[in-house]
Every structure is written in C-alpha cells, then in structure tokens.
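Study this fold:
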Amino acid sequence: MHNTPLSAEPVIFRPTGSKIFPYATREARRWIVLRLNDFPEHPLYTLFVDAQHVDDFDDAPDNWLLPSPGAPSALSAREREEALRTVSGLEAYGAETGTPCRGGFCSCSQRR
C-alpha cells in the first residue's frame, strides 16, 4: 500500500459500528473511511478519503491504529452519520469505479 495520502504520524481509526465500513477517522478536515471487503476474493480493505477511492490493501501500514473488530462506535452520532454518508452507495467492492461486484463467489451482493 503506497498510495495513501496520510501522514507518517500515527493514524488512529475509531470504530463506526458499521459491519461494512468499520473504521473511520478525521485528518486535516477529511473523513478517512475503511471498507471491509469479502477477503480473500477481494483485498481486505478499501481506503476512501472524502468518498474518493484511494487504495485497496490487505495489510494496514504500521502507523495505523485499528481498534478491535466489532468494537462499539467511538464516534458521536453526528460524526458517525457524517463519515458513513461519505461512502453511501459504496458498499460492494468495485462500486467506487462504477462496476460493483455482483457476488457469485463472494458476499458483495448481500452488502447493498
């Protein structure tokens, strides 16, 4: 993963309470949201910055701090709504390029 526009400083993600978009953080007034994909059929994560697809990857950079899977949301209701609104409609892998996975070999069709 080399395309991420995030700082070299630690990036602390907070749980959102969403099963599809489990982690988000705000950096430089931008929402950074991770989508959990149907691994191994697709990369484990997709990174979005203010709704723009940035990268797909399996292993997060060492300076990223991700909470335990399934941790309760640490965002306020307003923050959670704001973060998830930026990725609304991007639940299926590939939706960000206009070619959402239709499933068949993964669970993407169940994510819409």
About this structure: DSSP finds one helix and seven strands in the chain.
